[in-house]
Amino acid sequence: MQEDILINWAPQETRVAVVENGVLQELHVERSLERGLVGNVYLGRVARVLPGMQSAFIDIGLARAAFLHVADVWQRPAEGETPGRHPPAQVPIERQVFEGQTLLVQVIKDPVGSKGARLSTQISIAGRMLVFLPQDEHVGVSQKIAASQRDDLRQRLVALIGPDGGGFILRTNGEDASDTELADDIAYLRRSWARIRVASTQFPAPSLLHQDLNLLQRVLRDLAGERTQSIRVDSREQFEALQAFGQAFMPTAAQRLQHYRGERPIFDLFGIEQDIAGALARRVELQSGGYLIVDQTEALTTFDVNTGGFVGLRNFDDTIFKTNLEAAGAIARQLRLRNLGGIIIADFIDMAREEHREAVLRELRKQLARDRVKTMTGGFSQLGLVEMTRKRTRESLAHLLCESCPVCTGRGTVKTARSVAYDILREILREARQFSPREFRIVASPRVIDLFLDEESQHLAGLSEFIGKPVSLQSENAMGPEQYDIVLL
Fold it and tell me: Is the domain 417-488 a CATH 3.40.1260.20 member?
């Protein structure tokens, strides 16, 4: 399938949409004040070592300390051991780092929710065609390149690396690169590493030593591929800057750049704004008439498949199968579009026939294979659920664009006016046992006050008679459905 990349730029925010045959598949957002940290290299200071968790907290200058697990602490291979083949036995973290120590670290996962950034002490610098591992000597080739070509490519790469050493991994888009292009990339990456090493001796901890490319530049490096027909940018200034960057580092991708000059906003023209609104909704409609219900928590996301108004096929089994088959593709698309990570549970409609279940699983895995982010899928469980995990590298779309509702505080529901009214009556009774004011005054939302004036007036009068004090009412439009005050006069 052919794809187009649309870039909507503004000084405060850059948005990138990957569109496949007119359908939005991925959305990337970067804000100037909230730029992602993955790939950044810092000189950090160990703030605390936790042997029980085999981890350490590292101060890299952010609001929250970053997290370093023992598995992400690089260990030099033992003498005579082939790098990258057999990792050395893991040494406890308390024997590798200590409080107050300065460490060169790289962010491998952005802060998510209340969790700080995750770090690694193995530095990797991504170029156009290669990834440089300066602390390693391993030379590898992307698993996405055909196995029959890997040995030849590895030998070419070893010859180009020469005696200066260092580990390199050939990326997929370097498969057809010339020796000159690969040599230029090697030189660029080594210069970047040299700058980092010099900066690490000149700046105090914590300091930022190297920042990864911005979203616009990563479009050319990471998103543009063989299937990309065009990359349209709606800002002339950014188009020219991206063109200059692309011609220097990614000439093939730069050839697909186009400046969008239309009067209508580029996202409006291609219907992206409506797709973004749909990606934030709880309900996702399927073309057949069925629908998905998406519920997202911090660690778990669930997809519930429903037939809805779809009753079109010959029998009930075929109707369910058709809905589940369509839902499999929709779930894979929603994972990419919403950038959902962690544990994912798909509750497909129960299918009686084994061949139907296998077909749905095949379709789901086929659609997930298109994902740039690593996703693992199991089979149907005894309860008819499909469990998946998707690597989480940055905030989901909902966490990036939304915040918890100030009224319901993220629950999705609020108490009824009657429940709030009964809470108020109980609170007045408690207050009357401790204090003896001249009068109690209820300040609450208009709906609660209206209820006390109408249906609950008898209960309010009964309470007033029981405590021997008058109770007055005051409506406050600014108060939420569950908010109230009891004023003692």
Answer: yes
